[in-house]
Design goal:
Strand order of the largest sheet: 1-2
Largest sheet: 2 strands, antiparallel
Structural class: mainly alpha
Strand content: under 5%
Radius of gyration: 28 Å
Number of strands: 2
């Protein structure tokens, strides 16, 4: 009996020892060997997440343009104000960092770590651009005293849409670490519909508001800023549509495995969405709320400030 017990327990003991003592790499058997040279055929390299070798020239051009926009926007904040646009400025720097990691992907095309870092920063940085546009829409409405034309109150639209952005950010970040989640274009379309509807209602029902700045310089005409906001939204929507189609095709689809589509339908529209604000910085059009609001005169011994007692 003792002999039988030892015979039956020996295989079980061997299995347990193999599970705890065998290295993880020895348990997982790769059926496809690593290519000797990952640069020869990246399209058919299962260990290359992009399925192409990133171009250092295109990366350098894209990184330089975005970082220049980030620096110029920083100068605009210091010169013209509008610190409520800082989310876009910070997003420009993080977007530039994400593009810069593509230099590392050129050197290490099979690195999953660099791929995840690049994808997270490139995919999530535009959330800051969208948040800045939401804030700007509310500021324009308050500047014109026309918040009643918005479908969502001006003081709540920022909270509502940025809360949606944060939720999307967290979903994308958690999914991105596992090979990255999809973008949500519906809320961005909703935001653009709010902007367009508000613009039509102001022009139709408040013509005096529409032409209030027509005799001033262009950098004091709110319609110029509204048109710039429209251009920025179009750029973001083009990029969002690209991401939706890309993810619908899968990570091995034509859009996901083509560097030309990445720069043409992702980086270029986003560059347009952020660079358009450099010559038309919102701080040149909209003054700080604190400088516009003047408190009512307070009585002192029955006499109001600025009023001479007779």
């Amino acid at each position: 009996m003792a002999f039988l017990r030892s015979q039956t327990s020996a295989p079980l003991l061997a299995i347990i020892c193999s599970l705890f003592l065998t290295p993880a790499g020895a348990i997982i058997h790769h059926t496809v060997p690593h290519p000797a040279n990952p640069y020869l055929d990246p399209k058919n390299d299962p260990y290359n997440p992009l399925r192409y070798i990133t171009s250092n020239v295109l990366t350098a051009v894209a990184f330089s343009l975005v970082i220049i926009v980030a620096i110029l926007q920083t100068v605009c904040v210091r010169k013209y104000g509008a610190k409520w646009m800082l989310s876009m400025v910070i997003g420009c720097y993080t977007f530039a960092f994400g593009l810069g990691t593509r230099f590392a992907l050129h050197k290490f095309p099979e690195s999953k770590g660099w791929y995840i870092v690049e994808y997270l920063f490139v995919v999530l940085s535009p959330c800051a651009f969208i948040a800045a546009d939401y804030v700007l829409l509310g500021r324009i409405a308050l500047h014109l005293d026309a918040s009643h034309f918005l479908l969502v109150p001006a003081r709540k639209i920022t909270i509502a849409f940025i809360s949606s952005d944060i939720t999307t950010f967290l979903i994308q970040a958690s999914g991105g670490a596992l090979s990255v989640a999809a973008n949500d274009v519906d809320k961005q379309k909703t935001g653009s519909h709010v902007r367009f509807t508000a613009k039509r209602m102001v022009r139709r029902h408040a013509p005096e508001t529409w032409v209030r700045d027509q005799h001033g310089p262009w950098f004091k005409d709110w319609r110029t800023l509204a048109f710039v906001l429209l251009i920025s939204c179009i750029g973001i929507l083009i990029r969002s549509g690209y991401r939706v189609v890309e993810l619908s095709q899968g990570f091995l689809g034509r859009l996901a495995t083509s560097e030309g589509f990445f720069y043409g339908l992702d980086t270029l529209p986003l560059f347009l969405a952020i660079s358009v604000y450099v010559p038309f910085w919102p701080g040149r059009f909209i003054e700080n709320v604190s400088t516009k609001e003047t408190p009512p005169p307070s009585p002192i011994n029955g006499v109001e400030k600025g009023q001479v007692a007779s």
